[in-house]
Amino acid sequence: MPEPGLRNLPSKHPGNRIQPPGSRLREVSAQTSAGGPVGIVGLGYVGLPIAVAFAEAGREVVGLDTDPDKIAAINRAESYIEDIPSSSLQALEGRFRATGDYADLAACEAVIICVPTPLTGSRGLDLSYLDSVAGIFSRVLAPGQTVVLESTTYPGTTRDLLAVALEQGGRRAGIDFHLAFSPERIDPGRTDFTVRTTPKLVGGITPACTEKAVALYETICDRVIALSGPEAAELSKLLENIFRSVNIALVNELAQLCDRLGVDVWEVIDAASTKPFGFMRFEPGPGMGGHCLPVDPFYLAFKAREHDFYPEFIELAGKINQSQPLFCVNRIERVLNDNGKPVNGTKILILGVSYKGGVGDTRESPAIKIIRLLRELGADVKYHDPHVPQLEEAGLSDSPDLQSALAEADLTVIVTAHPEFDWGEIVERSRLVFDLRGVTRDLEDPGNVTRL
Ligand SMILES: NC(=O)c1ccc[n+]([C@@H]2O[C@H](COP(=O)([O-])OP(=O)(O)OC[C@H]3O[C@@H](n4cnc5c(N)ncnc54)[C@H](O)[C@@H]3O)[C@@H](O)[C@H]2O)c1
């Protein structure tokens, strides 16, 4: 009997075969100890918290990265990720060490891959990080190891790409080693859900692979959900992110329409949010940023096109969100115009440049696009962001003194709502404020604030 969930999948790979009883994998897996070392490849926003979670659960963890500064920092028990305080690393009592040597992964019971899957400059898929890891790791991959991919990617990557790449070392996926996909659901800056309390999805290329990966994550997650295969797990992650992208595009478009109609979009959203069912609140803003939301729709669209399918709805959402910074710059021009100022030569302070509040991650941040467009129009742009000391993409350094930056600027644009900002004080000390996040709604308006 074929596995129910995998029956109709167009797999090119033998890993889709059903595991025969008594196969080599079962023999080998019976010999691996539960609770052996765990290897984490890629110690960034995703990999580091997972590494810490396993080490906190008592496992020995070997973290592998190509960045020597990160390796050195981990081995000094110094964190470079806001959500992980250095004290958490110090409390691990040496159970977590970092390396740049793949040979150190050979003794691991499981290896979890968390490397970037960005887009190229021309918006193509950049799977080069994953390719590189698979090529080198395949040479040291040990029999019976469980390999899990956590990087976000299109459905089919684990079975059709990663399995094939890892098999270059001579071991067969689903037979000599276990292989699964488990999407990372971390939301940097968030404290109400942790690695332990966020349910974990797992899909292996065979039922035995799923079983192994589920057992692995059960040591760090309260709830682990087994899926029919990696494709369902890969696609569920894209659905989660595309759901957000589509809903953000909807309210961004509504904000553009409200501007034409002269209606307050925030009031409309507040009103709709009073419905206790059938409505979920999303808020407009400067556009979508981060490593996931602007990127993931392209991964799905790529896979869809291979099947002569054009996901227009998803692509439209991406298009609207990408055009939102242009709309915001147009609004900035109008705010200045209403106050008798041109953009050219005007001092504009951008408040917050990371893609979301409470973090320092500037990947795909709409603030960068807004800064670039304003500078092209001749504006004298400065920024302040307590989480981002340098904005290399724009060749700018943070204005460390917020008070003098506010005093100097003709216009303050609130782009990222960091929790430490005091909005009352910012409004009071600014000449003009343009609020792209709706954070000034509850303040008494002294007459200098315009909202998106
Ligand atoms: N950051 C998030 O909130 C988040 C959430 C869910 C999923 N994801 C996905 O997880 C993946 C990783 O994202 P991230 O935010 O942790 O990225 P990141 O850039 O913060 O971390 C990636 C790490 O991988 C290292 N690296 C790069 N090439 C390597 C190689 N060949 N070998 C070993 N290490 C290598 C980098 O030095 C870096 O430390 C991506 O696919 C991303 O889309 C991220």
Radius of gyration: 24 Å
Q: Give the oligomer, counting copies of the same chain as homo and different chains as hetero.
A: single chain
Distance between the termini: 57 Å
Query: Can you give the helix content as a percent range?
Result: 25-40%
Low-confidence stretches: 1-33
Report the strand count. Answer: 15
Compute the average pLDDT: 91
Main beta sheet:
8 strands, mixed
Ions, cofactors and other bound molecules:
nicotinamide-adenine-dinucleotide
User: How many H/I helices?
Assistant: 14
Shape: globular
Structural class: alpha/beta
Order of strands across the main sheet: 3-2-1-4-5-6-7-8
Fraction of residues in β-strands: 5-15%
What sequence of helices (H) and strands (E) makes up the elements?
HEHEHHEEHEHEEHEHHHHEHEEEHEHEE
Characteristic key phrases:
452 residues; alpha/beta; eight-stranded mixed β-sheet; five-stranded parallel β-sheet; 14 helices; globular; disordered N terminus; binds nicotinamide-adenine-dinucleotide
Question: What this model shows, in words?
Answer:
The chain has 452 residues and is α/β, with parallel strands linked by helices. It has helices at 24-31, 47-56, 68-75, 86-90, 128-137, 157-166, 207-217, 230-261, 265-272, 296-306, 312-338, 366-376, 402-408, 423-429; strands at 38-41, 61-64, 96-99, 110-113, 146-149, 178-181, 200-204, 224-226, 347-351, 380-384, 390-391, 396-397, 411-414, 433-435, 449-451. The strands form three sheets. It has an eight-stranded mixed β-sheet with strand order 3-2-1-4-5-6-7-8, with helices on both faces. The protein is globular. Mean pLDDT is 91; it is low at 1-33. The structure holds nicotinamide-adenine-dinucleotide (NAD). The site of nicotinamide-adenine-dinucleotide (NAD) has 26 residues, from helix 5.
